[in-house]
Amino acid sequence: MSAPKNYQLSEAYERRRLNDVQQYAFLENQPNYSGDHIVSLAADLFGTSTALVSLVEKDRQWFNARIGLDRCETSRSVSFCSHALASEDVLVVLDATKDPRFVENDLVTGEPNIRFYAGAPLITPRGYIIGTLCIIDGKPRERFSEADCQRLKALASLVMDQLELKRLTEAQKAALCLSRATHDGIINVTLPETITYANLAASKILGYSRQELIDMPMSALLPPDIVLKVNAAVTRFTKCGRDYAALRAFETTLTTKSGSEAPIELTASVWSADGAVQIGIILRDVTERKQREASFKMLFECNPIPMWIFDAKDLFFVETNNACSDLYGYSKERFLELSVFDLKPPEDHPDIVNNINMMASVYEPTDAVSHLDSMGRRLRVLPYARRITHQGKECILAALIDVTERERAAIELKNTRIFLDAVVESIPSMLFVKDVQDGRFVLINKAGENLLGMDRSDIIGKTDFDFFSNEDAARYAADDRSVAAGQELVVIENEPLSTPKGVRSLRTQKVGVRDSDGKPLYLLGISEDVTERLAMEQKNRHLSRHDILTDLPNRVAYQDLLNSHLMACAAERNELSLLLVDLDRFKAVNDSLGHQAGDEVLRKVAERLLADKEPNDIVARLGGDEFAIIKPLRHAKETAQALALKISAHLAEPIALDGQHVSVGCSIGIALFPQHGTTADVLMRRADVSLYRAKEKREGGFCLFEASMEEKAERERVLRNELRGALGRNEFRLVYQPIFDASSGTAVCCEALIRWEHPVIGSISPAEFIPAAESTGLIREIGRWVLKEACLAASSWPANIKVAVNLSPLQFGGFQLASDVTSALEGAGLLPDRLELEITEGIFLQDSEENIATLQQLKALGVHIALDDFGTGFSSLSYLRSFPFDKIKIDQSFVKGLPHSQDSLSIVRAIIALGRSFGSTITAEGVETLQQLALLSDEGCDECQGYFFARPLDPDTVLARLAPSRLRYGALS
Ligand code: C2E
Ligand code: CA
Ligand code: CA
Questions:
Q1: Are 805 and 836 in contact (CB under 8 A)?
Q2: For residue range 564-591, what is the model confidence (pLDDT) as tens digits?
Q3: SS3 letters for 643-657?
Q4: Pocket of ligand 1, candidates 753, 779, 837, 888: which has the most ligand atoms within 8 Å of its Cβ, to mutate?
Q5: How many Cβ atoms sit within 10 Å of the Cβ of residue 419?
Q6: Angle at the Cα of 885 (from 879 to 886), degrees rounded to 5?
Q7: Cα distance between residue 798 and residue 800, in whole Å
Q8: Which residue owns the Cα nearest ligand 1 atom 14?
Q9: Of 514, 625, 836, 927, which cross-links 946 as Cys (Cβ 3.0–4.6 Å)?
Q10: Could you identify the atom of ligand 1 that is nearest to the CA of residue 790?
């Protein structure tokens, strides 16, 4: 309206002008009948060929109405009208060829050969020139009067009104459509305050029909404060004189017809129309937005993830949620007093501001950061942040994922892994993991590398087929498949494995490792190299059943072997012989030469037995110097006896020991299956009985079992039992056999000999029960009784008669014997030199040094010591030197052969010479004939004893016969 007279076509003006042209652009393709009438009126009125309504856009002009021109548009550069835009005045060009602005113009130089032009501007209600109504002619004119200009201008404003009318009609149509289509309620109020229009949406929001709304006063709908605001806007509008005033949007609640509250965003504008002030009110239903806001608040407040909003400028917190308080330990109120700095550890402070300024609109963390809670504890947090505008301020909203525990768990997991790796590496067994699908190794430990002799880099990714023979690898693969298919741990014992160190035996435990769906993924195996252990077990098994010294089967193995052989023999109706071999003089060798020599003897004996046996025979060592041979054969008796003979001869041969030679000899007992028994126990017992008898028979013998042996053994068993009470029952008595001086014929001594009168069994010989007494240990008690009894008897004899008492080797040992002797002498009041103790070579068989000491003790008491049965026992004579015997008694077996046996005579002579050289008295026992007496006397024997002189006599008879007048043996016979 107040457009300047001359427009500077400034950029800003041109932009707004083009914007206004755009308001009419919708007319380009619409026929404009009234426009057409005006242009033809103008052409007629001014007598031109052409008249146009031209709208000038940025690069072109187009014609809304035209006459006399075929074209609908031209480029702006050739447009005359474009020049008319600069002024509200009419642009008149009388002769274009004379006007420097247009002389070169294409429209002037060429078709339509414009000469005359007059254009009146089309000025919009907003004051912008959007184009012209122009008249054009091919002939130049002399003049175009001011009146013509005014007429053209009037026509131009008529055109403009036309255009505006069309535009408004269009706009009204559009507004109506919009008001129908929009969800916003639109109400028109005409002052004083009556509603004159309401759209459908308004009716919906408020619950009144449109008819009900029309003529309703505004104050009936809007709350009073809003009415006040609207009225204030109206006042502003009327005062300022502008054509339009607007009320800023604000929120309120309206009461609907049904009485419910509707949250509304309300905008209002004020203008005047038809002379009345109009108020347009737009009501936007913000129920949903409110709900959205409420749910956002709820999403924030109650979100289990800690969230906060802080001011992006001062970094103070503006909002925090409950989860945030839980995590950091600050109340919501306290949080609002804090800034980001308070939650960050000091070392992070220098970077905080920069980091926040650099942050893009959205931040997704890659690593956790450290925060401090109210107690100063360090939290590890992933902050997801975004820039937001909150309460009109630039803020940052962050959701904080607490990963403190997760990180700690991850560290723990890592540590656990390190620990497990260390365990896996340091277990001494091979540990491996294979992929179930392709059998490739995915893990192997140090022990595995060592066992396979390969670096793990050469193992991982390969299969068994790369290391082992096809056959082995196929076996492992088959095992693996079956293990992976099952659920159980499978143990494979003694699995052979080829390694650079040779074939090793493994004990392998395998188990399938499955994924969470139970699908087999891996195969885990632990292989223990048990080669050495197996060898050790084998060795132990051997040792447990073999004798260490000789490597022969031991007693345990022997018993099993005997049982199994007996079963086999019984099944095959075969015979079997069992030989028990006992060394005769092993104890002496052991005692005199030491245990090492003894061991050597046993090894040599084992060798000889093995040499003598047949391939199927079994030789075992039962312990000590006792061996056994199992001989499974037909004609058992003959073959067993043959073998026994062979062994006896072989073991009688001297054994060489360190330059010495010893001869042990053996006794052998034989029992046969099935003749002598069908069970191992019976056979063993009977072989043992036979051995016992073989021993009795003296050296180098063997005995085949006979039933009588068992009877004898049984009798010995009974005797042993009966012997226990014999002393208490007073069943023993002593008889005395006198010993005479060979030259004078007078009695010098009486030997006490024990008798056992059993009330049932009858009289039992000492030769039979003394061994039993020795084996039961009763001999000590019995011996003590004999000593006491004999001394008592002797105390009533003439003083020149000694008493001789037999001692068993078992009475030696300890100091008991000396004290027994002393108390016997003292008890009888007998002088020690009247007592003679007869010992045998047996005391030198063991503990000889201790026994010699005892002998010396006894001798020191003043008693005499005689060596009985000389020549029958231990063959070494060295002990004769170790103790000076008072007397040596020639054994009766040598006397028996006299006078005929030359051997016996030689032995008797040798003994007499030996005794003489040691200064001992020589006594011959078992003298039964005069010839024997004469011979012994001639040979220089000092004393004689035997049935030729006297049988053992009961004490009374002895006492009677020892009367001094009858002492000569001639008188006795
Ligand atoms: P010994 O010490 O050699 O005793 C001699 C044995 O020969 C006695 O047998 C005696 O009766 C027997 N005898 C004596 N003169 C003759 C003879 O001319 N011809 C024959 N054929 N025999 C004769 P006895 O009494 O049966 O004693 C046997 C053995 O028992 C004794 O042999 C002795 O070793 C042992 N003995 C006897 N009494 C005792 C004792 O009180 N204590 C111990 N420890 N052993 C005793
Ligand atoms: Ca004797
Ligand atoms: Ca004797």
A1: yes
A2: 999 999 998 889 999 999 998 898 888 8
A3: HHHHHHHHHHCCEEE
A4: 753
A5: 10
A6: 170
A7: 6
A8: 946
A9: 927
A10: 41
Q: State how far the Cα of 549 lies from the Cα of 527, in Å rounded to an integer.
A: 37
Q: Which residues line ligand 1 (CB under 6 A)?
A: 737, 752-754, 765-767, 770, 786, 806-808, 868-869, 892, 925-928, 946-947, 952
Give the C-alpha distances (Å, rounded to integers) separating 869 from 107, 337, 365, 776, 893: 178, 125, 115, 23, 9
* Stretch (H or E) spanning 160: helix 146-181
- Decide if pLDDT at 969 tops 60: no
Ligand at shortest distance from the CA of 753: 1
Q: How close is the Cα of 917 to the center of ligand 3, in Å?
A: 22
**Nearest bound ligand to the CA of residue 807:** 1
CA of 471 to the centre of ligand 2 (A): 84
Taking CA atoms only, the protein residue closest to ligand 1 atom 32 is: 767
Angle at 504 between CA 498 and CA 508, to 5 degrees: 100
Secondary structure string (H, E, C) spanning 293-360: HHHHHHHHHCCCCCEEEEECCCCEEEEECHHHHHHHCCCHHHHCCCEHHHHCCHHHHHHHHHHHHHCC
| Cβ-contact 76, 82 below 8 angstroms | yes
Strands 618-623 and 626-632: antiparallel
Q: Work out the number of other CB atoms within 10 angstroms of the CB of residue 729.
A: 11
Which of 194, 196, 220 has the alpha carbon at shortest distance from 207? 220
What tens digit of pLDDT does each residue of 709-731 get? 888 888 888 888 999 999 999 99
CA gap 911, 801 in Å, rounded: 25
**Residues whose Cβ atom is located within 5 A of ion ligand 3:** 868-869, 925
For 612, the token pair is: 């003598």
Query: Cα(753) to centroid of ligand 1, in Å?
Result: 6
Longest dimension (CA), the chain: 224
DSSP β-bridge partners for residue 443: 433
In a 3-state reduction of DSSP, which class is residue 222? coil
Of 769, 825, 773, the C-alpha closest to 795 is: 825
pLDDT, tens digit, 9 for 90 and up, residues 139-186: 999 999 999 999 999 999 999 998 888 888 888 888 888 888 888 899
- Digit-coded pLDDT (tens) for 356-385: 999 999 999 999 999 999 999 999 999 999
Q: What is the CA radius of gyration of the chain?
A: 73
- Cis before 615 (ω within 30): no
Q: pLDDT: is 716 or 636 the higher one?
A: 716
Q: Which residue puts its alpha carbon closest to atom 22 of ligand 1?
A: 926
The gap between the terminal CA atoms of the chain, to the nearest Å, is: 197
What is the rounded distance in angstroms from the CA atom of residue 913 to the CA atom of residue 898? 17
